[in-house]
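Hey, can you fold this?
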Amino acid sequence: MDAEQTRSLYHPVTIGSLTIEGNLFLAPLAGYTDRAFRSVCLERGASFTYTEMVSAEGLARGSENTEKLMSRAEREELLGVQIFMNDASVAIRALPRLLQHDPSIIDINCGCPVPKVVKTGSGSALMKEPQKVQEMVRALKEYTDIPVSIKIRTGWDKNSITFKEVADAALSAGVDMITMHARTRQEGYSGTAQWSALTELSHFVHNRNPRVAVFGSGDLFSPLAAKEMLKTTSVDGVMFARGAIGNPFIFEDTRQVLTGGKAAEHDLAVRMKVMLKQLHRMGTDSSQELACREMRKHATSYLKGIPHGSRAKQELVQATSYAEYEQVCTRLIEGDL
């Protein structure tokens, strides 16, 4: 592949009426993609980000905690909102409150494997119900002019690989974008993502409607992995999920690699500065103590692979104030741990 072809791997993407300048997205992650985390990812090169998974039923019932999930991050001009539900009627009832937040894209979750979501008929359960997916997309397209996307898996299990059927149903209803995590619901996050299925999906969708964007997800833990996915599967873009936790730098690094450069070296001081920035932003939406507790799951990823990082983790899981976090980071940087 020559330099010109390599540069073309990073490019604008059009989703319905919306054009986004890059094709490196942050996936919706329950419990992780709050506005503090989205903000640091955007500052570090994410082209677009999604909220945590939002309950359409919760919106329809006026739940304040549900609505808080859609609060925009500072300078978050575009807002992707992912909703989950088991019926198109729920989506219609949720729309009035959803539209108050002026989403740029509405995504339907058809891939969450968590039992408490699946048992309601939502998430991955929809991989067995293409007709329901069609009805949900059609309802959102009928009542709004906002681009609609779906996030799917390859199927329910190895004996029920249905991504083409679900994609076909969504296409017939006018979906604008399809993202697939290349594992079945049964696999969860285990094993290896089947990128060959992404190749099948991209060809399937683009042959039917080349204007519909196809994104890939699964096992994207490095810029080189993202480059390989884009090269080999013909997807239009990639969606980082677990690979971005504790590593918002993956977006700018991937852009560098896709445009013929090299990923930057982010020294420990820079990593800790970004982690603390995220912590303080989390605190604007809750108490300092709660923010410190919630930050622990991110902090362990920020510290992964760092010399003496395990000692720092042990101290941070006990930290309940900004000052304690800052002291641990300072000692780590100065080599005092």
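Oh, and this one too while you're at it.
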Amino acid sequence: MRALVFESPLTMVCREVARPAPAAGEALVRVRYAGICGSEIHAYHGQHAKRVPPAIMGHEVAGVVEALGAGVTGPAPGTRVVVLPQKSCGACHWCTHGQPNLCDRKVMLGEPAWSGGYGEFFATPAGLLHPVADRVADDVATLVEPLAVAVHAVRRAGVGLGDRVLVMGAGAIGLMTVLAARAAGAGTVLATDLFDFNLERARGLGATHTLNARAGGLPERARELGDGRGLDAVFLAADAPGLFDQAVRSTRKQGTITLIAMFPDPRTVDLQTPKAMEHVVRGSLTFTPDDFRVALGLIEAHAATVAACITHRFGLAEGAEAFRLADRRGEDLVRVVLRP
């Protein structure tokens, strides 16, 4: 089969590889579309601890069940599916306490040990597959995974009815966080980004207010929307110097700051202000199976709206170009997807 192989930093090569066969308990999935996530861009630059070459990456995947391994009764061949792209051990402290996203031995789809969706086929435990409603297009279905990331973060922050929220960064994860926050009941959602193109999509997904970060004045705008106190919950869905300190200045006393983006480089931040304001600073890592199910339901309910987040489509043979484009993140780009 053909696959886009991550051979070394900044090097993606489309070539023939062996087609996988489903083992007992597994299904073979024919890939329809696979998204290029920010975490894969970090890997592309050699900045990901587990997605290292050589590997067939791709964990935001929609496809069709091709065949079943021994002992598997469903979903039946021909079923359109998305995959929950993490295998947990089921036995460690975190797995037995309902938090498999924190599993000590977790393997993500697209790591060297589990070839992912940048190929024509991949094998997966059948229990990780979820059928997709007909009204959800194949490319849109790839957004279930980033929306599950957002659902988990919004739940971690405890966003509820009427809360006032700031989402910093309106890339795919930030846009999904806007949708998840509104679905959780947030009454005010301020989204920021460097590009008006992305902010327009944020408004389409439920942002009540937007701000181009180039204009400055974010903490002042946040205090204005928060009756002079600041906002209840802030999500960092982007990484840039100074963003954490802006988040601190935008959050009310005892408000919550949730870290969703990847932060590969150490940096100096203001800790005295969040200490004095009794902020809660939370990390958020991937999602639980329940988060994934919630995200699938939200995608099915908002399929027509979230479709605007898929902006570029490439074949596998154009994969190197697709990665270069996703890495540059131009004015009109949100999510790039590959089709084998």
